[in-house]
Design goal:
Elements lengths: L6 H5 L15 E7 L5 E7 L1 H4 L4 E5 L11 E2 L3 E2 L8 E2 L5 E7 L2 H8 L3 E6 L6 H4 L4 E2 L10 E4 L7 H6 L3 E9 L11 E7 L2 E5 L5 H12 L6 E4 L15 H13 L3 E4 L2 H7 L6 E9 L5 E13 L8 H7 L6 E11 L12 H19 L3 H7 L17 H12 L9 E3 L2 E13 L5 E7 L5 E4 L9 H13 L6 E4 L16 H25 L11 E3 L2 E4 L2 E4 H8 L4 E7 L11 E13 L5 E11 L6 H20 L30 E5 L23 H13 L5 E2 L11
Parallel strand pairs: 1-15, 11-31, 13-14, 17-18, 22-23, 29-30
Antiparallel strand pairs: 1-7, 2-6, 2-8, 3-7, 4-5, 9-18, 10-18, 11-16, 12-13, 12-15, 16-17, 19-20, 20-28, 21-22, 21-27, 24-25, 25-26, 28-29
The protein binds dioxothiomolybdenum(VI) ion.
């Protein structure tokens, strides 16, 4: 078992998160938010705010901080606050008050009087469906609609009509928010070399690039430091409003500035997950062979079309073998806060719909839902020739079914006193991706090695991965590796997102380590060196030749060298032309619905995953547990209620429900471990996001098994189960 290298610092409170930083002369900023969903700011009366105690500056679209729209190499254009008078959602940052203390800034912010020219707002996804637009192509270039038909088939409708068994239904999922423990915040300090920013983020060099663009600086003039991040889940991929505002205000005021959003502000001044409407039709033969699959999706997006939740794309990318497939993906611009990546964007809500529909088909066929899934197990993404590099979904289901006692499930559930008990299952899939990454390795005379990359560890355990893969690649024990990340001054490690970081950084570590060893051996055998002219090799942290050995530290000391430093880079390449890559899993859960109160409790859960090689079993298990709990949370708890005026009625942790310990039973996690070295040399396929995929459907399917009631929306609430079927 490997503990997290950052664990002791975190549990003793010594890990410094962004807002923990304090500097002499530091001022505090408070963000002012809009109170309409759509319109134009007519005027902002800041007279009282400006003369309030301790106030140093009040910024607004009428007196803005200078910020340009940065174009990130990774994300494209990023919105920056206060640059115009347009209001596109309730709770949009429209002002920034800076004072000597946080309380003074907050008090003064309450004195800002805003008048608006209000325009009609569209805030309901249902109302907006009529004005849906085609989504743009996905990041990988996949088009917003796609039809793959068997020879001789004219349309997906024909394929459905020709299928003896058809199920067709509409599923909806709620607007969600990441609700990471650490609210978005930033501490900005200017010095002779430029800006230093302490702000939790998913990629320090990406954050530095966005800030440099916004502030018209060279990337090297921004130093982003975020070694500890209190949760991100996609919600800290892009630079936050407090970071832009604190940086710009600190420059104008020539003082360090700290800005932190309150918990309520996080819900609207950052970005969350889109709500979705998904229509699915499945056509099958009597033996369960899937003949046709149609998946049409609509997702909410902000008026700036900030993000598409690609639920249909997932269906075309990963799921089932079917002779005929049609997908479409639309977005519905609304006057709501921006949407963005959230753990398993696309696959999380998409799998609720698709895996519920598959369960409905199993019921219609009178077939076991696992058997139905395995009958249609794909060997390649639908319509593509590139086979999966490695797929052991069948084993995940077999192992899971045996461990979970699936054979005891009866189609009508069972009862236990006043509880109706049901079992549900679902498939989980998430593409295995990796991004370009560069790692720097420094061998030091004290026999330690520094393994460093800019990156970020938002709680996923990447820091420990650097230490474990670094140790393995250098053939030394992990306690001799000093891992470093979360610093834009280090070589670019890219984004901790898309379940990519272990595969991206791990591959680069192996390349860097091989180079470091090469350089070491060259030095060792150089003229005048201890192994002058000898045939040297390397093992166990040592240079060897005949019966002579020296550790790399001994050699560096003998040569009087302070260090050997190398960098190694890796990027996805040729493998993409040879195979398709995905992680897979089988989710199981048992729910108990109370016969009279209709209370829903999840009583058992098990997830069995094929995610390639598992680098750190402890961290891997905890990542998956977190994801599975999130799936339960999506199924039974989470959902933002949007009022007609665009306000989130429950945008705080009192009203936005997330599970507590009492909601979650023991969670079983099992890995079938097949290292996938076709994907990357480390063999890891990524498991950050897949844990949540499918779980909401498994819960809904279990509720159906227990009660006979099919709920086609999440979260499922007591009132959904009041009517007997
Ligand atoms: Mo994630 S949604 O890739 O942080």
């Amino acid at each position: 078992m490997t503990s997290r290298v950052d664990g002791p610092l975190k549990v003793t409170g010594r890990a410094e998160y962004g807002a923990d930083h304090t500097f002499p002369g530091m001022a505090h900023g408070y963000v002012v938010l809009s109170t309409i969903a759509h319109g134009e700011i007519e005027a902002m009366d800041v007279t009282d705010a400006k003369s309030a105690p301790g106030v140093l500056g009040v910024y607004s679209p009428f007196d803005p901080l200078e910020l340009r729209t940065p174009v990130s190499p990774f994300f494209g254009e990023t919105w920056v606050p206060l640059q115009d008078k347009e209001v596109a959602c309730y709770g949009q940052p429209i002002g920034f008050v800076v004072a000597e203390t946080y309380e003074q800034a907050r008090d003064a912010a309450m004195l800002v009087k805003v008048s608006y020219r209000t325009r009609p707002a569209l805030t309901s996804l249902e109302d907006g469906l009529a004005s849906a637009e085609d989504a743009p192509a996905a990041r990988d270039g996949a088009p917003p609609s796609l039809e793959v038909l068997a020879p001789g088939v004219e349309s997906i409708e024909d394929a459905l009509a020709a299928s003896p068994v058809v199920v067709e239904a509409t599923y909806t999922t709620a607007t969600q928010h990441h609700a990471a423990m650490e609210p978005h915040s930033a501490v900005a300090v200017w010095g002779p070399d430029g800006l230093t920013i302490h702000s939790g983020n998913q990629g320090s060099d990406l954050q530095a690039a966005e800030l440099a663009g916004a502030l018209d600086l060279k990337p090297s003039e921004v130093h982003a430091v975020n070694p500890f991040v209190g949760g991100a889940f996609g919600g800290k991929a892009r630079t936050s409003a407090p970071a832009f505002l604190a940086a710009a205000a600190a420059r104008v005021l020539d003082r360090p500035v700290k800005a932190a959003l309150s918990r309520e502000q996080v819900f609207t001044a950052t970005a969350g997950r889109a709500a979705t409407v998904q229509k699915i039709a499945l056509g099958a033969d009597h033996d369960g062979t899937l003949n046709a699959l149609r998946h049409d999706s609509w997702c909410s997006t902000a008026a700036d079309r900030s993000f598409v939740e690609p639920t249909s794309h997932g269906t075309s990318r990963e799921w089932y073998a079917t002779r005929n497939l049609a997908i479409s993906q639309k977005m519905v611009p609304l006057h709501i806060p921006p949407t963005t990546f959230m753990r398993a964007p696309g696959e999380a809500p998409g799998s609720f719909a698709l895996e519920s529909a598959i369960d409905e088909l199993a019921v219609a066929l009178g077939m076991d839902p696992i058997e139905l899934r395995l009958r249609n197990n794909s060997t390649a993404p639908p319509g593509k020739d590139l086979q999966w590099s490695s797929k052991h979904l069948d084993e995940c289901f077999r192992v899971g079914a045996a461990r979970f006692g699936w054979a005891d499930r009866s189609p009508g559930g069972r009862t236990d006193g006043d509880w109706l008990v049901g079992l549900g299952t679902a498939t989980a899939m998430f593409p295995a991706l990796r991004f370009p990454a560069t790692i720097e390795i420094t061998l030091r005379p004290d026999d330690t090695a520094v393994v460093a990359t800019s990156g970020a560890d938002p709680g996923t355990g990447l820091l420990t991965v650097l230490s474990l893969v670094g140790a393995e690649s250098l053939d030394i024990s992990p306690d001799r590796v000093v891992p470093r990340l979360g610093d834009s001054a280090l070589p670019s490690g890219g984004l901790s997102g898309g379940s990519t970081a272990t595969a991206s950084a791990g591959s680069a570590i192996m390349i860097a380590a091989a180079k470091a060893i090469d350089d070491l051996l060259t030095l060792a055998a150089a003229p005048g060196a201890p192994f002058d002219g000898m045939d040297v090799s390397y093992a166990d942290g040592r240079v060897l030749a005949g019966d002579r050995t020296m550790t790399f530290g001994e050699l560096l000391r003998a040569l009087n060298r302070p260090s050997i430093t190398v960098t190694g880079s890796s990027a996805p390449g040729e493998e993409l032309t040879k195979h398709s890559f995905s992680s897979f899993g089988a989710q199981f859960c048992e729910v108990r619905v109370h016969r009279w109160t209709r209370e829903i409790r999840v009583s058992r859960m098990l997830g069995v995953f094929d995610a390639g090689r598992i680098i750190n079993p402890t961290a891997a298990r905890s990542q998956i547990i977190g994801g599975m709990i999130w799936g339960v949370s999506a199924a039974l708890h989470e959902g933002l209620e949007i009022e007609a005026n665009g306000r989130f009625a429950n945008g705080d942790l009192a009203g936005y429900l997330i599970p507590v310990n009492a909601d979650i039973p023991e969670v079983g996690v099992h890995f079938v471990e097949y290292p996938d070295t076709l994907h990357n040399s480390v063999g890891a396929k990524g498991l950050g996001e897949i844990g949540t995929v499918g779980m909401a459907a498994a819960v809904a399917n279990a509720v159906h098994n227990a009660t006979g009631i099919r709920v086609r929306h999440i979260p499922i609430q007591i009132e959904d189960l009041l009517d007997q079927p």
